[in-house]
Write a structure and sequence with these properties.
single chain; about 475 residues; alpha+beta; Pdz3 Domain; 2 domains; 14 helices; 12 strands; membrane; transmembrane helix
């Protein structure tokens, strides 16, 4: 083996990856998705639980690791495709992504091209010229190789969604069917997975293109074997107010795993028996994914809100990491009914009860199953500001999120709706910033977290409360 040539090929692959504009476009979409979430958190709760840049870097590394493993499997399995096909899949993916961002997944472009290839090879007569050359390449689409690549992509998505999705939720405020402000959790998973796949052929017959050092979307190697760096965007997102995010993540990961098995099985059967198995596999996968997405949204529409206002106590919408609430194993969906033996009906009551004993906190917590447990924590100096709880709204909010269904990057279609502010709007009690005076029930979450106990107690004795409880 020529190790020098192998090392040089790897360097070319890395170079072409970093020269690929799709690589940066995918990262930009993933970052902007998280950035919008951080902005919404600031508007709703006065704090930012999501760190966009940090999460983008972490997920980029996770996607890189998975991409290396999947690329090794593809190379060892002997998958080879033509550069023309890579160009067709990339361009069609961009066109479909302009219609709907979730269509940028290679599942859709490979499915369309496989059906188009079958139709051209069976019913379209031979045509001369450039158009005929394009039809010839499309008719010779290596559907078996692309089914193998699709298997790798779906396998990588399964691993990333299953492992990372459990801990990647963000709190927001949305509106219920009755028009009330309720809490919701946002799952946003977008990963740029760089794949390295073997390719043959060239895009152009002219030698000048085959030797050009500037290759924007693919490596050009005339009449020889080459390794191609192909960035692929995978993931899942959705706004869940009536369904636990872990249920959606588990269903999505299971469907991705099943789809990977079907794609791999289609490639294997197409190699052993007939290529029609490989042609059929992407379409079966596409139907399964769309039915799964519809069923997930349908389950949401039938269920009751998870973070509706509690009859007693205050409901936890999110727990910030590295806070003492997280160390007490308080989870989203839990309801805090008593603090230090004092019943609480609002955030104001909770912080007032905490201020009565600055050195110790004992919480009575009711989980989603209705089971009661007691958690306690010794509060050391400086920890009072590290409560780390974000509470669900009490039914009224001047702002809320309106989002569509689930799918890759679908959270980018969400919009912030202003319902108006006024005396009847209690959204500021849940971290929203308004222009109204800050009465005790309308303090922002940041004020509650940062004020000292003595300052909170002094303020509450001076200011009248408009809390209806």
């Amino acid at each position: 083996m020529n190790w020098h040539a192998a090392a040089l090929s790897i360097l070319w692959v890395v170079r072409d990856l970093f020269l690929n504009p799709l690589f940066y476009a995918g990262f930009a979409l993933a970052f902007w998705d998280l950035r919008r979430t951080s902005m919404f958190e600031r508007k709703f709760f006065g704090i930012r639980a999501t760190r966009p840049l940090r999460l983008t870097i972490i997920r980029g590394v996770q996607g890189l690791v998975v991409g290396i493993m999947i690329s090794a499997l593809l190379i060892l399995s002997g998958v080879v495709v033509d550069l023309w096909e890579v160009a067709a899949v990339s361009i069609l993916g961009l066109v479909l992504g302009a219609i709907q961002l979730r269509f940028v997944s290679p599942v859709y472009s490979i499915s369309v091209l496989s059906a188009l290839s079958l139709a051209i090879s069976k019913w379209v007569p031979h045509v001369q010229g450039f158009f005929g050359m394009v039809l010839s390449h499309l008719g010779a689409f290596h559907i078996i190789g692309w089914s193998g690549i699709l298997c790798g992509v779906l396998l990588g998505e399964t691993v990333l969604v299953a492992i990372v999705g459990r801990h990647s939720v963000s709190p927001v405020v949305t509106v219920s069917k009755r028009g009330r402000g309720i809490g919701a959790l946002w799952v946003q998973l977008a990963f740029m997975v760089p794949l390295v796949i073997p390719t043959v052929g060239s895009l152009w017959s002219a030698p000048v293109y085959a030797t050009s050092p500037w290759h924007m979307l693919w490596t050009v190697t005339a009449g020889s074997f080459a390794l191609l760096a192909l960035p692929v965007l995978v993931g899942f997102s959705g706004l869940f107010d009536n369904l636990r995010p872990r249920v959606a993540v588990q269903q999505t990961a299971a469907i991705d795993g099943l789809s990977a098995v079907l794609a791999g099985g289609g490639a294997y059967l197409g190699t052993i028996y007939d290529s029609s198995y490989a042609v059929l596999a992407p379409w079966v996968i596409l139907v399964i994914r769309e039915v799964s997405r519809w069923w997930l949204d349908h389950r949401q529409s039938l269920a009751d809100p998870l973070f509706a206002p509690a009859d007693e106590g205050v409901m936890v919408l999110a727990v910030l990491p590295d806070s003492w609430a997280a160390r007490l194993d308080v989870e989203p969906g839990d309801t805090i009914t008593r603090v230090n033996g004092v019943p609480v009906h609002s955030q104001y009551d909770l912080h007032f009860a905490l201020s009565q004993n600055p050195a110790y906190a004992k919480l009575e917590v009711v989980d989603e199953r209705g089971e009661v447990r007691f958690v306690s924590h010794t509060v050391y100096e400086g920890e009072r500001t590290q409560l780390g709880l974000i509470f669900a709204p009490d039914g009224q909010s001047p702002r809320f999120i309106k989002a569509g269904g689930s799918g890759l990057l679908q959270s980018l279609y969400a919009s912030l709706t202003e319902a108006g502010t006024g005396a009847s709007g209690l959204g500021a009690a849940h971290g929203l910033t308004t222009a109204e005076p800050a009465t005790p029930s309308k303090r922002t979450a940041r004020e509650m977290f940062t004020r000292s106990p003595a300052a909170r107690e002094a303020a509450m004795t001076k200011e009248p409360s408009d809390n209806p409880d």
